[in-house]
Amino acid sequence: MLDNIHRTSYKVRISDADKNGTLKCNGLLQMLQEAATEHATILGVDFKALKPLNLGWAVSKFVINITRLPQWGERINVTTWASDKDKVATYREFVVTDSSGIELVSARSQWVLFDTRERKIARMGKIQDWSRLEKKYANTSEFLPLKPPENVVSSAVCAARNDDIDLNGHVNNAVYLIWVIESLPYNFKGLPNQIRINFLEEVMPHTDVEVICALDGENSYHALTNRNTNRECARVNILWKQAQTPILS
């Protein structure tokens, strides 16, 4: 019988941590993605199962609520399950706890099937369905990131490197958060409280992406634009809170 809920654990490696010993935003996204991939394998809809059908998974939306980011060397537990679905998307929930069972992170994500030959979204009916459990939020649309206001304070131009490309032949979703953090002002300080991401279109190898950053109070608003096509490829909002004292000096 297939498991409806997948549970796994991870240890925060030195390469996952920032200069203060805290798990990086992209490291968190990588861990959630890894848990989702493990569960997809159990459900029989992983990369190996979909590849002969010329299909793949792409994450479309993410909302991540963060109470506390784990520290370097800390072991955390990740629980994930599939919730609702529609004609072109399936939704997945996550809960991350520390070794004592205290909740650190909760998240909801939207995933779409896409045709790897035609590079376009495919309908969910092309694959088998699986058991689903309750969702954490009413819907994902209410968490969509807002367009950045006019007061852009900083920006960055980032290149899609060969090392950024995943099994589907495009930039991995966690790389977008690296670019977003790169666009923050140099002296910016804070810890993320909530991250909202909308991936609008894939980024291919050797593409330059311009990321703008606008600040409003403790929130940062980011738009990522493909400089080859001049089209927005992602939008990200981060709600920040005051940084704590670093554990590393």
Please, could you describe this protein's structure?
- It is a single chain.
- The chain folds into two domains: 1-141, Hotdog Thioesterase (Thiol Ester Dehydrase, Chain A, Roll), CATH 3.10.129; 144-249, Thiol Ester Dehydrase, Chain A, CATH 3.10.129.10.
- Strands 1, 2, 3, 4, 5, 6, 7, 8, 9, 10 and 11 form an eleven-stranded antiparallel β-sheet that branches.
- The termini are far apart.
- It is 14% helix and 40% strand.
- By secondary structure, it is mainly beta.
Low-confidence stretches: none
The biggest beta sheet reads: 11 strands, antiparallel
What is the CATH architecture term of the largest domain?
A: Roll
Give the strand tally: 11
CATH names the topology of the largest domain as Thiol Ester Dehydrase, Chain A
Overall structural class, as computed from helix and strand content, comes to: mainly beta
| Helical proportion, percent range | 10-25%
N→C terminal distance: 50 Å
CATH class descriptor name of the largest domain: Alpha Beta
Q: How big is the Rg? A: 18 Å
Indicate the overall shape: globular
Rounded mean pLDDT score: 89
Count of individual helical segments = 3
The tally of structural domains comes to: 2
